[in-house]
Design goal:
alpha+beta; THUMP fold; Alpha-Beta Plaits; 10-stranded mixed sheet; 12 helices; elongated
Amino acid sequence: MFREKEGFLSALKGKLPARKECENGMLQKIRLCKKCYNRTGIKCLIADPYDCFICSGILWKIDEIADDIVKSLDGYEFETFLIGSRIHGSLKAIEDYLKLEEEKSLKYQFNKELGREIEIRTGKKLSFKNPDVTIVYDLENLNYSIYIKPLYIYGRYKKRVRGLSQTRWLCPKCNGKGCLLCNWTGKKYVSVEELISEPIREFVMGTDAVLHGAGREDVDARMLGNGRPFIVEVKNPKRRCIDLRELERLVNENCRGKVEVLNLKLAEAKDIEFLKSARFKKIYRVKVLFGRDLSDDEIRRAIEELKNRDIHQRTPLRVLHRRSDLLRVRKVYDIELLFLRRNIAVLRIEADSGLYIKEFISGDQGRTRPSLSEVLNVEARVEKLDVIRIEGGL
């Protein structure tokens, strides 16, 4: 066992020489093991490893620690790892007193030796750049934590049916516990997230999985065409060397035609921020109901007036209860009339990401301007909405 450090800080008093003696290299009262003696160059007595004033013998337990860590990593696929360590309490007080250079510090030596031993045992590479596994050893409390880098899988999804939320949506009454309102499912809607991420999580043997989308479509909207870019982030995956084609097949089998994924590939954490912040152009197809019959000339004039216009939108009333009331400006690039019969029209709209299409049509009680309803001076609402193309992606 390592030497107990309880009360070690208080024990420093009276055992150490004056700072002046330390500077002269005459630390006669300090006993160091051979490793710490050679490492620091301090002139002192050489002691048994477990009587070492600095490391308390931990540098002589590297093999045992490495064996324990490798055992903990059994079952995890990884190619790179990093060793880190924490020093605090009595050990920090000692090193602060001795004023050791970084390359002579206990942390540096411990990390170097432990990293070398784990490389030998696993055949994996020690890496300081985005490692698959990070091991952090607490040199004061003699324990360690293992951090597994999440696995990021990019792709595009098509949502072929209405009535699916993009992310998990718990029942508002029971908050996920299950009740009569949600038929004991705990959910208000089945989500694209669970249909895609759960089979991925199981396939790579992770503990949790989260879907990050490039924007989102409403529950009652479909996502067709080339699909919406997304990344599934899997926490603590045991598998990394995976067959993405097989994974794609399993996910689509699980979705049973409601959702389809395509073009799966590995991604990185930084790609999530790119997807979230990118302003991809989007193309929509909408079926609109008007408050009266319209002529072809009326609607075409309105369309021409709204092309290449900046649209000023306040947060829609329908989502105001869960989102901040902000003013955003998005551009409509093109509108095409696909169909018109009396008070029903089908439009193709090309616009900036983030434009609320339903409110662009209805005006949302004046919160979106200009709107199709305002330009026509007639009530208008979206009956059906499909996203048919999203530009960009990884």
